[in-house]
Amino acid sequence: MESIKVFAPATVANVACGFDVLGFAVDSPGDEVVLKKTNSGKVVIKEITGDEGRLPKNPLSNTVSISIIQFLEKIGIEQGIEITLHKKMPLGSGLGSSAASTVAGVFAINELMGNPLSRSELLPFAMEGERLACGSAHADNVGPALMGGFVLIRSYDPLDVIKIPTPKELYATIIHPQIEVQTKDAREILRKQIPIKSAIIQWGNVGGLVAGLMLNDYGLIGRSLQDVIVEPIRSILIPGFDQVKQAAMQAGALGGSISGSGPSMFTLSKDRETAERVGRAMEVEFKKINIGNEVYVSKINENGPVVMG
What we know:
single chain, alpha+beta, 2 domains, 7-stranded mixed β-sheet, 10 helices, about 35% helix
């Protein structure tokens, strides 16, 4: 195999109560990466589309290329690689944009080199891409993007990532308002200390959400999608947040919150019809305040990255 094209999905991180420890993958949007072997012995970025010229083409400054470089160093192969990155999702959206492209690149190079590493062994390389993108090597985007499905990051040291079974008819609705929130900015406004009362509520909700997913208990899932620590602060950065969330709940959503660091918002519903109705209701609220948006509805994506050619 001399070249490969891989798609990797967008992800919802935090999932309300699970700041930095929960995330799930969706069917769309996502990013595509094309890798081609060369005789140069170097990893280079040939082209980036869909980013309006904002992403660096220096291989040491781009999340896709740096992860591929580290992968090749790990397996001890000096192989020239030409990278083409197609950004099919907005930057700074809270949908794991950097994670999708990084995971696509790491998965692609592993396939191209004959799969020397397992998916779980690829995760640290993708996490290093996240460190480059936002200063923190968190796994709640790259974990589900790489492994598919709903994941829990139980521990970072040592790294322990668990895939959680989810109800087959669980649907996600994501709305991306056309504003931008930088991950670094969204992290800087968070409190460095939290009251023990809030921590106890949050722990209970994380446990409840995991149990609800595993038990197919939609009521428990809905009751557990509560964030008393991060959402009250970050929601200030999203115009109309309260009205949009209220409209989603009135339309039948189980619950929802901010996707990642925002500005995208997500909800979960127990069937496609409800998820689509929720999307329309959220869209109306953003239009009332003259904010354009895109709506995505999908099941939980259990596959993660896929080879397209």
